[in-house]
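We now fix the convention by which a protein and its fold are recorded. The integers have meaning only within a learned vocabulary of local backbone shapes. The record below shows the convention in full.
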Amino acid sequence: MPRSILNKEVREKVKEYKKADIVVGIPSYNNARTIPHVVRAVSAGLVKYFSKYNFVLINSDGGSKDGTPNLVKETAVEDFDTILIEHPIHLINKIVTPYHGIPGKGSAFRTIFEIAHLLEAKACAVVDSDLRSITPEWMESLIEPILFHGFDFVAPLYQRHKYDGTITNSIVYPLTRALYGKRIRQPIGGEFGFSGEMLSHFLKNKKVYQTDVARYGIDIWMTTTSVAGGFKVCQSFLGAKIHNPKDPGADLSSMLSQVVGSVFNLMETHYDSWSGVTDSTPVPEFGFKFEVATDPVRVNLEGMVESFKYGVSDLVSVWDRFLSGDVLSELNRISSYNVLEFRLPAELWVRIVYDFSLAFHKNIMTREHILRSLTPLYLGRTASFVNETMESSPPEVEEKIENLCQEFEKQKGYLLSRWK
């Protein structure tokens, strides 16, 4: 194995631990405020639900300057008696290591994958380091379907604020559902479980970790690889996902480009898998669903609408290369709306996303330019969604998203007819 992936200290730890039934990975970068809680929740969950198994916790850090790795080493559950009926058989073993390669979550995951593979893990889970709502029960929900029910991949199912996860809600979920036919609600959720066999599959293509998958694209790559590969997939309800707040109108051009670019690249790789899919079906679900409170998400509605209008005035020369005259005319008309009247209809949005995927596929121009030019349109769609759902309850919001998903499925024939 290349020395650049695992350093000598890590290799020595792997030799010391020899094998692990369960591995849990936590990627991090300057998460000193939140990571002690995550480590305690993971540790308590492993001891509470899997006390008879060997387990290792891995922190793969991106060069934190705030002492995050030291906090992982020092953090422990002080009193297991409060959560256990019987004393744990195994201790919490830890490996704390910097990762190498392109800065980003995907590179951190690759390090976790490599260590888990060497430890011959039967089940592996990964969780984000900025979580404030994680509980010990998350470990049961992510790992039990792997160990006891024969699943290869567990995606998370959360209750989130209606304006949290807008990239998921407006693009990634409806598009991947229409393409691959599986209703995995949070394909880029952040918390996943997977089998040893799935882990080996993730490590087969080393070159993928030199792409945007190494940055923000790893979650959708894992989900799509699992579904397109015919592995047994499910999702588990985890409750609320409360993490460091992110304004959906904030500067997110790089993240959007990398996530959507990963989705589009995966369409190239897995054309044979998605081209014959005509509808979508649910996947098995685990966990007890319940209503939970979520933190509010601040939204800069005026800023999103303004960004959309700037895009319409400045990017026509780009969009004119792959958007039809009818679409451009409609965008120009929409740009005349004021903030509270602003609407970008679902039918138009689906057509735009499919046209962008076709432009990317056919290399109409530099792919980076194509992806970057999507940002103002995405912000326009998000502003429209905010206006449409301002007074809506969570079930009503979910119904809106379901309608959008059905529109993506309805228009898939348009995509297929132009792909070749």
In short: The beta strands are 22-28, 55-61, 93-98, 123-126, 153-159, 192-195, 233-240, 285-286. The two ends are 40 Å apart (CA to CA). Residues 301-419 form one domain.
